[in-house]
Amino acid sequence: MISSSSLPTIIIFERHWDEQPKNLGKKLVTELAFEGYDTICFEFAQDLSMDDILSLHAKQLREDINLYSQAAQRLGRAGIKIDKLSEVGFSPLAQLMQQYVSSKHFYTVTEKIKQLPASLILKETFKEAQNLAFTIKGIDINTKELSEITSLDLTQRMSHIDAKEEHRIQTMTNNLLKLSTEKKGTIFFCGSLHAQNLIDSFKQKNMQNNLLYYFPHSNKNYDDSVNDLDLLVNETLKNSTYCLQNESDVNKLFNKILDDVKKKNIEYQEEILDNSSKSFLTEVFKLNFKTFKRLGDHVDALLDISQIDNEATILSSLRRKNIKFYQRSLNECNHLVVPEINTTETARKIRRLQ
Fold first, then answer.
1. pLDDT for 10-19, tens place per residue?
2. Which H or E run includes 225?
3. In what order do the strands lie in the sheet with 9-14?
4. How far is CA 318 from the centre of its chain?
5. pLDDT per residue as tens digits for the range 251-276
6. What contacts 317, CB < 8 A, 6 or more positions away?
7. For the segment 273-305, what is each residue's pLDDT rounded down to a tens digit?
8. Integer Cα distance of 139 and 180 in angstroms
9. Secondary element (H or E) of residue 238
10. Is residue 29 within 8 Å of 129, Cβ to Cβ?
11. Taking CA 27 as the corner, what is the angle to CA 53 and CA 298, rounded to the nearest 5 degrees?
């Protein structure tokens, strides 16, 4: 048996208003279901049920759409026409909201308008997650405590966030570790301000080896006068930061995450003795390939390459036929992994090796 622990927990650090992490998130849910992932988590309160989360988000989204519509109408009556209010920087948008929409609650109105596009994508992600039988969970502190933060506008919120940070980080860490023992695979979307403290918390528990984390972002700023990335990209995130400007960038990062998942922590629990693709690989290269089943109903062929002399020849042959492969250490030995040999496409490519 070749074994390791369950699928690694994936953390997507994000600016909550940014659309590109949400676009990546939707793709992750759609595609990683086939790798065995079954749970998606957010900074919702831990005492909310899945139905509570969906209902709360739907209610907030309806209110935000209505608020956006009202703001656009009032600006229109004042002769101000803006195609997409959410694209306006926070400061000038707040000035417009104060002057034409709400002199008292203009910060809250501005914030809701800025986050609306990302929230609409999140709605699509929730729908896709439900279709794929994902569990949707909140892993933050309880509703009463969390509302003490979220009910405040931006001018008052940061001091309360700082005061609750340690408690929130401990709660999120404990919930993620609990899910890692109960679920096949978990994806968590977390504000990037929590990145350093959350990763440090995992390191303190010596659990960082079963963790993958990324900070995807667009090339936009919340306020045009401030490059907020300069404030967010610290030592923890500097090597895990990716600017996503278009769909191609989203796909590239998704493919990297998928490769990282396969390299990081694959669970091989059952050796498949009778497999035609494995037999073909063994015959072609005259080496002892072994075949194992992993999560997601995939079957991978493995070859211990720590003591063979013709590794370069094997890799060259696989590349020529466009057969996916990667290398990883298992049981302290370096292995070549040819993934998903039970798929029709991979099996067909393997048979073209001769």
1. 999 999 999 9
2. none
3. 135-140, 39-45, 186-191, 9-14, 211-217, 241-243
4. 30
5. 999 999 998 887 775 567 688 988 99
6. 284, 285, 353
7. 889 999 999 999 999 999 998 765 678 999 998
8. 13
9. none
10. yes
11. 105
Amino acid of residue 14: E
Mean pLDDT of 120-149: 95
Domain boundaries, the chain: 9-264, 270-350
State how far the alpha carbon of 228 is from the alpha carbons of 18, 96, 105, 253, 293, in Å.
Answer: 12, 22, 24, 21, 45
Q: CA nearest 9: which of 145, 205, 165?
A: 205
Going from the C-alpha of 118 to that of each of 30, 142, 243, 296, 340, the distances in angstroms are 17, 24, 16, 29, 34
DSSP string spanning 122-154? Answer: HHHHHHHHHHTT-EEEEEES-HHHHHHHHTS-H
Dig out the tokens for 102 from the structure. Answer: 């709400």
Query: Distance (Å, rounded) from C-alpha 336 to C-alpha 333?
Result: 10
- The answer to whether the beta carbons of residues 180 and 186 sit under 8 Å apart is yes
Cα within 13 Å of Cα(135), Cβ side: 15
Cβ atoms of residues 122 and 24 within 8 Å? no
Q: Which two tokens stand for residue 114?
A: 């800025």
Two structure tokens written together for 298: 């995939």
The reported pLDDT for the residue numbered 231 is 84
Per residue in 178-189, pLDDT (tens digit) is 898 788 789 999
CA 248-326-354 angle, 5° bins: 105
Q: Write down the pTM of the prediction.
A: 0.75
Q: What is the mean pLDDT of the chain?
A: 90
CB 132 within 8 A of CB 105: no
Q: What is the pLDDT of residue 34?
A: 81
